[in-house]
Design a protein that fits this description.
cell membrane; symport; Growth Hormone, Chain: A; mainly alpha; membrane; transmembrane helix; Putative proline/betaine transporter
Length: 450
């Protein structure tokens, strides 16, 4: 009797899982970025119209910043249930929450219609977005990394990271389109289109995510009854060192990113008179370059190790900090686009792409969702949220870009110091069922540095 070959379940495909993770992160970051763009362009005029223009803009950006406070809370909550109930369930929930929060923003009444209720609802929607992003990133990268073969973990782990520049392109192009409307139409209904359009992407993202299977590492852990009762407590007791390493590692990618993708738009307009639309187009070009350099950096990390790529990227950020502003201050559009392509397409890509796998390999399976999420989002709250404000204050204080370059250099060397403390982990087997005692499963951190 002829044997029947087993049927391969395509839902276990690393490529399919990584693609589902990328689609989800793309939707989440798209929603996140359009809120930031709307904060700069329109929110001060429709939700804070009772304030003077300057105060209204500050209030809009404060609303945008609320999410950075909510993200670590989302990381703890989603991490807890992701480590206990599964990665997939939390990813579906986070995407649904982000979609609801974003679509509701597109339906909100204005201040002129309902008074203070309008900005109050806006803040609540932003809090919901922040909670969702706090749960999204860790789960997305774990699904990609834990489904991947050992020799391609960084490559597949970089797919969710590609969602970031793709989302930036989509968000920027969408707003570039709607701002071409007559101003009255844009303020009345045009600004709502990018938010409402998010619902289409959310439905597609949910459909794709529901088609993939749970992480095999989590399934093995659950079968052996190894779930942590309170993952955040275990992180604080036994895994606080890798959590701190992860937080510090975020400085190298985050500071140049928020300078190069957010702050530089207003800086270039004020210092060189560069048209905002041209800056946004340049940002789209740089993001397009990053879509390719992110997986390229990850492939290199699978061959030579995470630390070498991460440290190489951080050294590039430090070396390019002064030349970046020299190119921007030239006022030459071609040189400015070159500066953006280098700082985002090389500096950010090399320090950001491998971060997903590097963080995942710092923690054991039973607390991996919580550990990666908390390290990433607490680090982001410190190294991302304050960047535009700090950069603005430094320029006002010094009257030049010199302290901005120093700011980027300091961030790069903070990350370099943290990465040196971690043990190289690209040859580790992270999906094996845990058998050692709790203390033996403490992080991949080199004892010679601790």
């Amino acid at each position: 009797m002829a044997s029947i070959a087993p049927v391969k379940d395509d839902r276990l495909s690393p490529r399919r899982t990584a693609f589902a993770s990328m689609i989800g992160t793309m939707v989440e970051w798209y929603d996140y970025f359009i809120f930031g763009t709307a904060s700069a362009l329109v929110f001060s005029r429709i939700f804070f119209s009772s304030l003077d223009p300057t105060t209204g803009v500050l209030a809009s950006f404060a609303t945008f910043g609320v999410a950075f406070v909510a993200r670590p809370v989302g990381a703890i909550v989603f991490g807890h249930f992701g480590d206990r109930l599964g990665r997939k369930k939390m990813l579906v929930l986070s995407l649904l929450m982000m979609g609801v929060g974003t679509v509701v923003v597109g339906l909100l009444p204005t201040y002129d219609q309902v008074g203070l209720l309008a900005p109050t609802l806006l803040v609540l929607c932003r809090l919901l977005q922040g909670l969702a992003v706090g749960g999204e990133w860790g789960g997305a990268v774990l699904m990609a990394v834990e489904h991947a073969p050992k020799n391609k973990r960084a490559f597949y782990g970089s797919w969710p990271q590609m969602g970031n520049p793709i989302a930036m392109i989509l968000a920027t192009l969408t707003f570039l389109a709607v701002v071409q409307l007559p101003e009255d139409d844009f303020l009345a209904w045009g600004w709502r289109i990018p938010f409402l359009a998010s619902s289409i992407m959310v439905v597609i993202g949910l459909y794709i995510r529901l088609k993939v299977l749970e992480s095999p590492a989590f399934v093995r852990m659950k079968e052996q009854g190894e779930q942590s009762r309170v993952p955040i407590v275990e992180i604080l007791r036994y895994h606080w060192k890798p959590a701190l390493i992860g937080m510090a590692t975020t400085a190298a990618p985050n500071i140049p990113y928020y300078i190069g993708a957010v702050f530089i738009i207003s800086y270039a307009a004020q210092r060189t008179g560069m048209d905002t639309n041209l800056m946004l187009i340049g940002l789209c070009i740089a993001s397009f370059v990053e879509v390719f350099t992110i997986p390229a950096s990850a492939i290199l990390a699978d061959r030579i190790g995470r630390k070498k790529v991460l440290m190489g990227g951080a050294f590039f950020v430090a070396a390019f900090a002064f030349p970046f502003f020299w190119l921007v201050d030239s006022g030459n559009p071609v040189l400015i686009v070159l500066a953006l392509c280098l700082i985002l397409g090389v500096g950010h890509a090399t320090t950001y792409s491998t971060q997903a796998t590097f963080f995942s390999e710092l923690f054991p399976t039973k607390v991996r969702y919580t550990g990666t999420s908390v390290a990433y989002h607490l680090g982001g709250m410190i190294t991302s949220g304050p960047v535009p404000l700090v950069a603005t204050a430094l320029v006002v204080w010094a009257g030049s870009s010199v302290p901005l370059s120093i700011y980027m250099i300091v961030g790069a060397f903070i990350s370099i110091g943290a990465i040196r403390l971690a043990r190289e982990s690209y040859q580790d087997e992270i999906n094996a069922a845990p058998k050692a005692s709790l203390k033996d499963r403490t992080p991949s951190v080199s004892s010679r540095h601790i």
